[in-house]
Amino acid sequence: MALPEIISGQVWTLGPHVNTDLLHPPSHFTPDEKKMREGIEEGILRLGGKVKKEGPEVGWIIVAGENFGCGSSRETSARGLLAFGVKGVVAYSFARIFMRSLINLGIPVFECREIQEHVRNGEMIRILMREGWIETQDSKRFSFSEMDLHFKKILEVGGLLHYLRRERHGL
Amino acid sequence: MVQGITGKIIQDHADGRKEGAYLSVKVDFILLHDPTFALILPELKASGEEIWDRTKVLLTVDHFAPPSSTERANMVKEVLSFAVGKKLPHLSIYQGICHQLLVEGPWLKPGQLILGADSHTVTGGALGCLATGLGSTDILYSLITGKTWLRPPEVVRINFRGNLPPYLMGKDIILDLLGRYGEGGFLYQAMEFFDTDEAISMDDRFAICNMVVEGGAKNGLFMPDRVTEEFLIERDNGLNSSFQRFDEELTYSKKIEMDLSQLKPKIALPHSPAKVVDVEEVDGEPIDTIFIGSCTGGRLRDIEVVSTLLKGRKIAQGVNLLVCPASQKIYLQAIEKDYLTTLIEAGGVVLNPSCGPCGGIDKGILAKDERCLSTSNRNFQGRMGDPSSKVFLSSPLTAAASALTGRIVDPREVM
């Protein structure tokens, strides 16, 4: 699973300072992937239920505000998003542990400060890696900050465990 | 050029590899607890790899302590069977909250680089080390390699001056900073505290460092001083109490000056630790439950001030006062000093040391519309129970004062 040139998906918008307790309530902590997904469904309800619980086949792209994923380090929030079909996350800014967890699981993250006001839940957007911009359904383009080389290297091999394997065994 | 003590620690631990802005650094110690370790246990086993140095890992069972459901019991069982099988030398079962156990043990010293599979690992920075939390997968990488990748952050220097008045605690200080700079106010940054007049006790320093993550900070640390030295001497019975000093010129991106004597008791309103006002502004707000505990507010000094304030008094009828010492050691000390007798006689209930109500795990989960005043670190919606419950965060002193009437009270009114 390498980093694709183009990531497309349906938009799920979230506001500023969405914390991991809201996104994946601590009462739903579990090592079971299916139940982790249910935790995200509960999170969606608590966040106002603006997206359908059944994900689109193309997958989701989250567009969030400032400090996305603040709070607890419980990786069930990031793992739950992966199980829910989230393929990429765009935010004004990220909380550091959450951002690292997304990348470690192979979910690309993009810092973009302009797009938030210009997308709606459910519309299709595309992230063009080489061009360095995100294209909305009505063809508006928003550039994202250049991804750090370290994160790129982790994402190119599909996550931190693959990165580790390569580092230790050259696989 | 790197900034602050944090930058220096990263530099001192670098192994020479660099990717983008990130340096590969050696890790001195890793903290694990039951749920976040349970997540990576299958992956660790499947990898066929071993923990790089078992003597540098503390594994605690503190969240599901003891477990309150069969799913949790099975997680704990898996974790323990691994730990016993691998003969992990530092294993702590139901002994208290990992962040307290980490600083009670003989491991942490100024200048070290510490990781934990929990965001509140930042607590350890009170001892002058770089202590930071990471997600489970990051921790798995570090357990196997003894390393991690860190970016030297911008560092903010916070100078405290003056004495801490008796109605204030470390919690008021950090709440004030969070209120002024916001939930993302220190995003990606490190916060370094200089207690110029050595006015802040170690327990208060732990509370301050514990909540730097609520401002988005990577870590927070106190410049090691005489308070640090005295703590280390007492902790280690005078053995190996020498530690790294940071005497050289340090660079910072920003400086904040704080006069402690001018501060008022602070409180965070639902549902954000940065939604902070003076306690007097919400005087009289009704409260159903008071929680004294967690890795922020369950230490000996916290229990001591609550007990001193409630001695010979009764809490208001209908109010639940839950007291949860942060560790068995604190529990025993509080028994010895009669604090717990005082609290029980005042109408409180003592819970066994664990994370408990703070993360809505067990014992004291909040009901629909229930209003709680907690000495913990997070009041995010639904964290402690029903999504309609409301949590306020304050110092143990403000919490104790409020227990007397069942309404939020500025501690200066009852001291």
In short:
In chain A, 32% of the residues lie in helices and 19% in strands. Chain A has 171 residues and is an alpha/beta fold. Chain A has a 7-stranded mixed beta sheet with strand order 4-3-2-1-5-6-7.
Notes on the structure:
The complex is a heterodimer of chains A (171) and B (415). Chain A is α/β, with parallel strands linked by helices. Chain A has one domain (6-169): Aconitase, domain 4 (Alpha-Beta Barrel), CATH 3.20.19.10. In chain A, 32% of the residues lie in helices and 19% in strands. Chain A is built from six helices and seven strands, in the order βααβαβαββββαα. Chain A has helices at 20-23, 33-46, 76-84, 96-104, 149-156, 160-169; strands at residues 6-13, 60-64, 86-91, 109-111, 124-128, 133-135, 141-143. In chain A, α2 packs across α3 (76-84). Helices cover 31% and strands 20% of the residues of chain B. Chain B has helices at 4-13, 34-47, 70-85, 98-104, 136-145, 170-181, 202-210, 226-235, 294-297, 300-310, 328-336, 339-346, 396-405; strands spanning 14-19, 22-26, 29-33, 57-61, 91-93, 113-116, 130-133, 147-150, 155-161, 190-195, 219-222, 254-259, 266-268, 276-278, 289-292, 320-323, 349-350, 371-374, 390-394. Chain B has a seven-stranded mixed beta sheet with strand order 14-13-19-18-15-16-17, with helices on both faces. Chain B has a five-stranded parallel beta sheet with strand order 5-4-3-6-7, with helices on both faces. Chain B has a four-stranded parallel beta sheet with strand order 11-10-9-12. In chain B, α6 (170-181) links the parallel β9 (155-161) and β10 (190-195). At the A-B interface, α3, α4, α5 and α6 of A face α2 and α5 of B.
Tally of separate domains of chain B: 2
Q: Which strand order do you get reading across the main beta sheet of chain A? A: 4-3-2-1-5-6-7
Give me the number of helical elements of chain B. Answer: 13
- Terminal CA distance of chain A reads 14 Å
Radius of gyration of chain B: 20 Å
Mean pLDDT of chain B: 97
Proportion of β residues of chain A? 15-25%
Please identify the top-level CATH class of the largest domain in chain B: Alpha Beta
Order of neighbouring strands in the sheet with most strands of chain B: 14-13-19-18-15-16-17
Q: What would you call the quaternary organization?
A: heterodimer
The H-level CATH homologous superfamily of chain A, spelled out, is Aconitase, domain 4
Helix content of chain B: 25-40%
Q: Main beta sheet of chain B: strand number and arrangement? A: 7 strands, mixed
| CATH homologous superfamily descriptor of the largest domain in chain B | Aconitase, domain 3
Which protein chains are joined by the largest interface, and how many residues does each one contribute? A-B, 47 and 46 residues
Low-confidence stretches of chain A: none
Instruction: Based on the coordinates given, report the CATH architecture of the largest domain in chain B.
Output: 2-Layer Sandwich
